[in-house]
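Lecture notes, part 5. Sequence design as translation. It can be helpful to think of inverse folding as translation between two languages: the language of shapes and the language of residues. The source text, in structure tokens, appears below.
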């Protein structure tokens, strides 16, 4: 919807001129000759911005401002004055004026100010509609996200839940693999039976076997009683093998046996126990790669990977960041008993500037901390900790720009490339102890090109030979 502006002044000529100028900028504008008329217009129509003169006979600008802020707090008011008295400016700001312009003012400045207001209003509206969306549940069993790749994930979860297919969930740390495993179980026909989880990375190799398959009394020193393993506990339900990439080779064969035969044997026992267990595994490692390196049995890899669900890293679905941030805000507001109920557009924007190596878990922690620290009703900034320990809003993956990205594009590009080339050459040269022939070969550049760059960047062989 087009945003409407109301201009209020007692001078007709000023009104007419300004209206013409604003309409030339493509803005929808109405006029009011004084405070009372302005309030009338405001009653009739919705406006995004009011531009009001300070000095007017009858109701003056400040009085009008006060009334607008009381009746229509969402409207942004920009005050205009021909006098620029400091005390009045301060007063106007205190009453909630958004900006202040002095007559005669630059139309370009006015346009910039208005466009900025519209942008902020759009962000706020987006924010509100996002909250509505959260309430409308864009989720799947506590998994929040409406990015198209997450919708694909939901489809796969439904598919996995309809069958008993052995399923592998992959994705970087904190992307929600465990949530997916739970969603599958609780949407499957096994939902009233147990979901048993084993974190294969957390249990020492010596214990893992008995943990999974159980043991008979006396099967090893310390085995005083018979113990049921997690496989047996998961009978008729689901066994979630988390961090499956960490299962030692010795146990991988036993898992394979279960997947092929649907039976296990307790440690130290001869009895074969037939079980009905559905297996879901998860890993943040590249199992195909591990299989190639013979660190993971290839046959097991194929058996656990009948259906695979991959969770994209958060940086590849950043359009879900506002939705997730809202979701965690609502969650922690309740948990921590805070009254904070919104995130200002600037703070929300800052979340897009980061590359989220810890994915959704890291975002959750950042929002939780902000909610905890916020005494008011709005989160104004997020503290994002980079691995180096400093506070940063820019991601590790973003290149540091020389200066403040204040050069024309082509020039900036050339500078970045030169910086990068110099660094690249320095590394290759130092690896080859200043030997240009060898360095050029490693870089797959011909000698002449390499030598020209060597001279261009002012290197000397001695630098690399010491
Ligand atoms: N899409 C999502 N919506 C809501 N919460 C999420 C989502 N993804 C992850 N989370 C939350 O982030 C945290 C980490 O999720 P989870 O434990 O499932 O990740 P993971 O992939 O298993 O991580 P790891 O590899 O480190 O074990 C949890 O608190 C979870 O509730
Ligand atoms: Mg996990």
């Amino acid at each position: 919807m087009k945003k409407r502006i109301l201009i209020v002044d007692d001078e007709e000529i000023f009104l007419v001129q300004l209206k013409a100028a604003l309409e030339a900028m493509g803005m929808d504008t109405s006029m009011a000759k004084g405070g009372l008329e302005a309030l009338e217009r405001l009653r009739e129509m919705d406006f995004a911005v009011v531009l009001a003169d300070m000095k007017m006979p009858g109701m003056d600008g400040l009085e009008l401002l006060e009334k607008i802020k009381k009746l229509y707090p969402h409207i942004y008011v920009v005050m205009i004055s021909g006098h620029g008295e400091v005390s009045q400016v301060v007063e106007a700001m205190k009453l909630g004026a958004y900006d202040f312009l002095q007559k005669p003012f630059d139309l370009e400045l006015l346009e910039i100010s208005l466009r900025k207001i519209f942008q902020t209003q759009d962000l706020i509206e987006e924010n509100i509609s996002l909250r509505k969306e959260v309430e409308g549940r864009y989720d799947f069993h506590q998994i929040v996200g409406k990015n198209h790749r997450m919708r694909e994930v939901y489809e796969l979860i439904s598919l996995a839940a309809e069958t008993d297919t052995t399923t592998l969930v992959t994705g970087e740390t904190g992307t929600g693999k465990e949530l997916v495993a739970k969603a599958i179980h609780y949407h499957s026909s096994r939902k009233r039976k147990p979901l048993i989880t084993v974190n294969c990375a957390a249990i020492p190799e010596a214990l893992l076997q008995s943990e999974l398959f159980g043991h008979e009394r006396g099967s090893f020193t310390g085995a005083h009683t018979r113990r049921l393993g997690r496989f047996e506990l998961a009978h008729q339900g689901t066994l979630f093998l988390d961090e499956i990439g960490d299962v030692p080779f010795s146990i991988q064969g036993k898992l394979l046996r279960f997947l092929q035969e649907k039976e296990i044997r307790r440690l130290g026992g001869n009895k074969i126990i037939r079980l009905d267990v559905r297996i879901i595994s998860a890993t943040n490692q590249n199992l195909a790669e591990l299989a190639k390196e013979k660190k993971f049995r290839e046959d097991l890899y194929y058996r656990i990977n009948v259906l695979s669900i991959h969770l994209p890293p958060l940086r590849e679905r950043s359009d879900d960041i506002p939705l997730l941030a809202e979701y965690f805000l609502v969650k922690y507001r309740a948990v921590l008993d805070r009254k904070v109920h919104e995130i200002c557009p600037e703070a929300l924007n800052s979340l897009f500037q980061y590359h989220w190596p810890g994915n959704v878990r890291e975002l959750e922690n950042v929002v939780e901390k902000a909610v905890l620290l916020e005494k008011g009703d709005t989160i104004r900034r997020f503290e994002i900790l980079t691995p180096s320990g400093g506070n940063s809003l820019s991601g590790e993956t973003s290149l540091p720009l020389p200066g403040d990205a204040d050069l024309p594009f082509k020039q900036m590009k050339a500078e970045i490339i030169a910086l990068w080339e110099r660094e690249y050459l320095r590394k290759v040269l130092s690896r080859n102890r200043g030997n240009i022939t060898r360095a050029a070969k490693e870089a797959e550049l011909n000698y002449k090109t390499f030598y020209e760059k060597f001279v261009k960047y002012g290197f000397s062989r001695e630098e690399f030979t010491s």
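The translated text above is only one of many valid answers, since several sequences can fold into similar shapes. The mean pLDDT is 86.
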